[in-house]
Each structure stands twice: as structure tokens, then as C-alpha cells.
Amino acid sequence: MRGITNKLGLLACVTAVAMLAPAAASAADVKAARVWAGPEYTRVVFDLSGPATYKMSQGDVPGTIVLDIAGSAVAGEFAPPGGQGLFKSMSAGRQGNTARMTARVDAQAKPKSFLLKPAGDYGYRLVLDLYPGGQTDPGDNAPDDEDASAVAAAPAAPSKPVGATPARGKPLPAALTGERKVIVAIDAGHGGEDPGARGATGLREKDVTLQVARELADQINRQPGMQAFLTRTGDYFIPLKRRYQIAREHNADMFVSIHADAFKNSDAKGSSVWVLSPRGKTSEAARWLADRENRADLVGGVSLDDKDDSLAAVLLDLQQGYAMQASESIAGNVLKALGRLGPTHRGYVERANFVVLRSPDVPSILVETAFITNPSEETRLRNPAHRQELASAVLGGVRNYFESMPPPGTWFAAQAARRNGTSVASVTSPAPAAPVVADAGAVASTAVKAVTKKTVAKADTPTRKGRADEDVRDLHRVSRGETLTGIAQQYGVSVGALKMANKMTDNNVRIGSVMVIPSG
Asked: What is the number of H-type helices and E-type strands within the chain?
């Protein structure tokens, strides 16, 4: 009897295993695949029905990449995507208990792959990125914990904007150092397979943000002394950190991220403007000081790599302090301009730890144009005339900031100098981004020099003998972070002569004051 019982038990176990085997094998079916070709790389995204392990290898035939997904099968409705960019075609099959996806790609393409956990409306995904031959990965596009939800099935990388300025820290051409245009980076939120919020009638945030961003860029580029570029020019996603990196790489004077808000209550309405929270500033500072690659980069024109920890922390804090102060001012201007267009969600600038706002040296704001989940606001967002008004309101706030706080060497600074009866100091050659300085105070001044210094010279008026200012060579408006030592070194005069010319009894300089620079 016991033998019969054991046999029956064994048979039951085998039957149970046989019944469970198909379920285990299909636990991570490959349901679909999509391709997005961006300016810098091509991304292929596989939708999986569950978690999986996989192996990537080069195929036997040149120009093929094989992805073996263990314990998986290809769903019956699976359809290979069409070729785009570096991706040519795909075949799908099965090897035992493994789904085999064979992609035919450009022969010179360099692959990179990673898995994504469920986020937002998306389930498990396997991502295959293809980079052009000879090109390195333009940043870590595999998301970390804090921005994985926004990455979703992140497709392609950013474009290199046409007419963009040189990389941060490199000298500008001489033609740009006198009255250069201010550079505004405009970031259209979401994109590609990350649609963002969705309105009741199906309007997608990623479409609205790109439309408003394009309109804003067009309006900015029609303004004297201003130039805009888009972080994305089409329907593809850019990892969040990469967005503000683009702004830094192109020496942007300002970063504006465009979004459309959403809320479970459809009555929520109004525009809002956000800046980085103090917590975000602190956490980003910790990352920069701990990351050797970050420290080797230029912040405000100065590398932190060769500075000791204390000095690097001071320089970074100075630069971040300036950027956050400028961001607050810009955000206030933009919120006021949007308030003239319609109601704002709240009557004050809001703060959050948004990844896209974390640039340590580029003033950055995030604009929520409206609540796309509000039916009336969704209707307005569909209207090109309303989007044009939104862009005009943002432009007004941005332009007002540059008029009141013109970056040195820009067209706005030149206009301000002329209004004040002065002219921009002549420039004979491009100034280095990080000149040699003698002490820590001057180094701190240098860290913010690129964005805070305002130097003007006397107006070209006829001179006459006996003028009270005949020994005056230049005038200098003191900006945040500057020191008496740094100003003296900048003009090649002694600290004593500078103090005597300005009747100073100590070494303290006041922000906003105009100092006389003696001729000798």
C-alpha cells in the first residue's frame, strides 16, 4: 500500500511540475519591441511580462547582436520593429527555455544593455542601446533609483544643438566676448515612450512641452542679444541628468524646463514655477565633491579637481549659492509674467528636489504651464495661440531678468552700460575661463566670475585738462563673491592704490557698489 501511495505521490509531483513548467517558461515573455533613433544613439526597448535574466553577445554574422533571455518565450502577437538609425532588423526565436532575439545592426555599432524595473505605466523592460562606431557612451543612460520612474522606457539621447557655444570652461571666440548673446537652454519635458501626464481627451504632456519649447525658442531667437537651443528637438527621451548636462556643456546662462502639471482632482488649475530645494542643493554638492569625474569638470570656469576638500566645498557652495539666487529671481519674474496671462496655482515660487534643476552653475527653473488634467486648461493647451501666449509670458520673465541682471560681456550688459552713460571695456583677445590667481579669496571670486562680474569703462567723452576724474581708468561694479584682492589683480593695480582711489579704510567691498580703478 505504501508503495502504491509513493508512486501516486510521485506521479502527482511530476504532473504538478509539468503543469508549472509552461508557466515558469512564459514568466518573462517578450511581448513587444520598439525602436527610437536619436541624434547620438539608437535605443531598442523590449517589453517583458516579468523579471528576467539575459545574456548579450555578438552574433556569428558581423553586424548582429544576440540577446538570450532565460526562462522566456516570444509572445504570439510579437512583431519585430522596422529599422531606424543604427538598428536594421530583428528576428525572434527560441532555444530550449530561452527566447533568442537577434538584431541586425550597423557593423560599427557599439552595444550597451540593461534591465528596467516597472515604473509608471510600464512593466519590466530590457533596453539595448547602439552607439556609433568610435563614439563613447554620452553619459550613464541606465537610470538610477531617483529618476527611473521618469526614464520609463527611455529612448534616444539628446541632440547637439546647432550654433551652440563651446564646451564649458573653454575660451569663447573673441567676437563673442564683447556683446555676446545670452544662451537659454529650453528643455521639453518627457518625450519618446515617456508621454508624461495625459489629459481627459488624450492630450499628451510630451507633445505640449515640445510645442511650447519650440515656440519659446523661436521667440527668444527673434530677440536681440538672445539665443536659445532645445535639449530635445524631436519625440525622444533624454535621461534627466543628461538634460542639465547639455545646458552646462553649451555654456547656457539659463535653463528652463517646460512641463504640464497633473492631479487626480480635475479642478486643479493654474501655472507654477519651481526651483531647486535646499535639500537638492546639499545632496548635489555631496555628489560633486565625492565624484572624481565631477570634480575634474569646470564649475563656473574653475576645476575642483586640484583643490583640497575644504576649498573645493567653498567654491562649489559659492557657485551653487549664486545659481540658486539667480534661479529664484528668474522664477519670480516668470511667475509674475504667467500671472498676467491667467491664474497661477500658487502665488509663490515652489521648491522641489527635481533632478533637472541640479546644475551647480546654471540658474535653472521648471515651468508647469497648466494642469493638463483640467479639461478647460487641456483645451487651451491644444490651442496654438494659447501656447504662443504661454511662451511669450515665459520669454517676458526671462528677458526681464537679463535686463535687470545682465551677465558680463553680453549684449544686455552693453545696453545697461550705455543707459548708464558708460561703454563696455574693449576686448582685444578672449579671456581664459580660469585665470591664475594668488589667493583663496581671489579663487572664490574666479569661481563665480563668468556669471557675476560686471566691468564697465568710462564713456568716450572729450577730455579736458583738470578734470576731477582724469586719473580714473575704469569703473567696476562689485558682484557677489568678488574680493578686493581679486579686483586689484584683475586690473593690475595694487590693493593700496585701489583703496586710496576709493577712500576705503578696510578691505571689505559691498555688492553692487561701483569702484574707481586708478590709472596707475
From this structure: 13, 20
